[in-house]
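Hello,

Our lab assistant flagged a job as stuck in the queue for most of the afternoon. It eventually completed. Since we weren't sure the result was trustworthy after the delay, we are filing this so someone can double-check. Below is the sequence as submitted and the structure that was eventually returned. Let us know if re-running is recommended.
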Amino acid sequence: MKSKQKLYCYVDETGQDVGSKFFIVVAVIVLSNINDERKLLSELESETKIGKSKWHKSNYKFRIKFIEGFLSKENKNLRVYFLKARKPILFYVPTLEILQKAILENRGPNTQAVVCIDGLDAFSAKKFTNALRTKNLKISLAKGVRDESEVLIRLADRWAGCLRMALFGNEPCQDLVERAKKKGLLKEV
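-- returned structure --
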């Protein structure tokens, strides 16, 4: 019997802010070496002085510097997916859609996914686990995490913020999004 390979998926979204016509969900997929990826991202947070701050609570200069630093790395074990949905919409609809597509695209024959969604309560986590399992996805667990404690959720948060700003016409963020797409690191679902 072959050993199971784990695929990790970290999800965050832009929230239901009134200033936007769109709801953006980001899923960061970690294909392997999760502890190495966490270490590299933590080092990048220190180097760029963004620290553990969420996108909207950090200095603009540090935001851009972090995403630029991220794009300068190899990132061969990471994939970033995003989905843009017109509002109003319940958050779980686009969240389930991005998870299904990102996991299906990256799973192997013996892969089991661990899904972590920012701010999800235990009851909702069970619902997400069951909903994903009905799509013939091997999900060991969907759970809620807080971005203050998980560097990969903070990465999803920062990409969601960058994508939102790009959508609002911010040229440096538009450039970062285009560079990430060309590099094959960022993919729209």
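-- support follow-up --
The delay was a queue issue, not a problem with the job. The result is valid. The radius of gyration is 16 Å. The longest strand covers residues 5-13.
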